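Hi all, posting the design record for the shared folder.

TITLE: backbone redesign
STEP: 1 of 1
STRUCTURE INPUT:
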């Protein structure tokens, strides 16, 4: 008699593998794309929007009207111009703030009675002070100089308008006879003011709204801002790399953080993808428990076992392949946007489109904004990056009016 042979090669009978849903449990969130017919897939593709919700209405730049224009600046009298600028936040209201020297009350605007002068000023009412206060005294951007360095306040206001509108130094110099040094100084001061505003508002950003139970789409990626030779190792390159997180349809939710890439050889095309040590603290700080669909590229650093090991609750990870790569023994062609089926923790279902199209457009804006700045000059370049972030936040708003609100918040 012969003994019965086992069905498997390891001496154990063959067991039917459990289904994916049964193995993970109905309450375990995960994302994949089931095999569908071409007709059903095309129907779902047309039905599912890439940006499922938005907080703004897109208006073309050529149709957007700003609250200020060059004609308005020229038509106003000097007193009207100062009052309107103070009302919109560009200048400090000294009647409310008081004397910057002693804190006493100041008089309303009065004109300088000296010959050849067209200046308007406030005066402190205290007998021991009597300080003359110009409307732009101690301003973050405007200057109160003497001699050749003195420029009228109205001219400085026009220069600020041109800088905010996106004119470069050469174009501004051709429109108004001002030297390059003053134009660069105003541009740098504006970048620093925007940097202060971003540093105050960025910690208050929150992704999603878990209280309402809605899942939102969030994208994360990194970009290379520039490179420079290492001072200690001439055969190595230092890279300026920044990471970012943004919620689709909410441009004012863009969050930036600087990474620490490794030094590379001189002919290296880039510093490589973001490291886990840079990504994990930011994901834990901004995304953990926020009920977000995280969309990234195929870099392994972004995965972190979010879907399987449950290291971060409130996050479902969808990723796309941006370059041809080998997965499970077969080559996969790049697909920049994919349709994903998401199983929610409460048993619900949700179809989303995976990709990084929104944050890629933000990177294009950042590169155009910083292309004339040297990344080795860390302070100036850092201010420029934050300035680009501020412009992206307000891209669908009146940029000049937003500049006035920013100056009013910073100057009190």
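Okay, here is what came back for every position:
SEQUENCE:
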């Amino acid at each position: 008699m012969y003994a019965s042979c086992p069905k498997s090669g390891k001496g154990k009978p063959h067991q039917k593998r459990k289904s994916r849903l049964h193995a993970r449990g109905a309450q375990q969130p995960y994302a994949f794309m089931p095999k569908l017919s071409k007709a059903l897939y095309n129907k779902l593709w047309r039905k599912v929007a890439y940006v499922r919700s938005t907080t703004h209405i897109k208006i073309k730049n050529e149709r957007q009207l700003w609250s200020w224009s060059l004609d308005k600046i020229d038509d106003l009298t000097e007193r009207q111009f100062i009052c309107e600028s103070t009302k919109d936040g560009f200048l400090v209201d000294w009647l409310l703030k008081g004397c910057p020297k002693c804190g006493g009350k100041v008089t309303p605007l009065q004109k300088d009675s000296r010959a050849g002068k067209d200046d308007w000023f406030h005066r402190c009412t205290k007998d021991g002070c009597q300080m003359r206060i110009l409307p732009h005294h101690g301003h973050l951007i405007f200057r109160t100089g003497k001699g050749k360095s003195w420029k009228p306040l109205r001219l400085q206001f026009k220069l600020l308008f041109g800088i905010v509108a996106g004119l470069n130094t050469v174009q501004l110099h051709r429109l108004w006879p001002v030297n390059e040094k003053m134009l660069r100084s105003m541009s740098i001061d504006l970048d620093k003011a925007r940097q202060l505003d971003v540093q105050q508002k960025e910690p208050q950003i929150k992704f999603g709204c878990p209280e309402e139970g809605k899942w939102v789409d969030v994208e994360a990626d990194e970009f290379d801002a520039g490179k420079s030779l290492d001072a200690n190792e001439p055969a190595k390159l230092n890279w300026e790399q920044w990471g970012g997180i943004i919620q689709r349809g909410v441009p004012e939710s863009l969050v930036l953080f600087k990474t620490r890439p490794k030094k590379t050889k001189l002919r290296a095309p880039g510093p490589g993808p973001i490291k886990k040590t840079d990504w994990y603290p930011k994901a834990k700080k901004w995304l953990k428990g926020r009920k977000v669909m995280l969309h990234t590229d195929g870099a392994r650093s972004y995965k972190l076992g979010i879907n399987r090991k449950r290291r971060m609750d409130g996050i479902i990870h969808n990723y796309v392949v941006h370059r041809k790569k080998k997965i499970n023994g077969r080559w996969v062609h790049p697909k920049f946007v994919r349709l994903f089926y998401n199983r929610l923790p409460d048993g619900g279902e949700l179809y989303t489109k995976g990709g990084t199209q929104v944050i890629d457009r933000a990177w294009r804006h950042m590169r155009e904004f910083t292309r004339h700045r040297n990344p080795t000059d860390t302070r100036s370049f850092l201010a420029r990056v934050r300035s680009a972030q501020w412009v992206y936040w307000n891209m669908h708003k009146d940029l000049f009016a937003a500049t006035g609100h920013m100056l009013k918040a910073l100057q009190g």
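COMMENT: The chain has twelve helices and 14 strands.
Let me know if anyone wants the other runs.
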